[in-house]
Specification:
Blueprint (H helix, E strand, L loop, with lengths): L1 H9 L4 E4 L1 E2 L2 E2 H9 L9 E4 L6 H13 L5 E3 L5 H9 L9
Parallel strand pairs: 1-4, 4-5
Antiparallel strand pairs: 2-3
């Protein structure tokens, strides 16, 4: 709920969220963001560093992206450059030297 309230107030260009959180889930956050008119336009990248069985990873990916809720689902440890590359697909970032 906290993440949703922050999104409502700050209207970010992009949201990057964990899939499995201590006080909620990525599914809940996505459903709130995408069902609210003032936030439904915001792209959401969902990730998890928690190891998932291949079948489960595929099912979650298909579900979140297939319903148009997540812009991307990343289910592995990623390096910062990979995350930035994914973010650049959805919003413009300044180029750093």
């Amino acid at each position: 709920m906290e993440g949703f309230l922050i999104a409502l107030k700050s209207q970010p260009d992009l949201i990057v969220t964990n899939y499995d959180m201590a006080r909620g889930s990525g599914n809940y956050l996505l459903s709130r963001i995408k069902s609210t008119r003032s936030t439904q336009h915001i792209p959401v990248v969902v990730y998890t560093a928690k190891p998932l069985e291949r079948g489960l990873e595929h099912a979650i990916n298909r579900d979140l992206i297939g319903r148009g809720q997540a812009a991307a689902f990343i289910a592995k440890r990623i390096d910062p450059a990979s995350l930035i590359a994914e973010v650049r697909q959805h919003i413009a970032l300044p180029v750093q030297a």
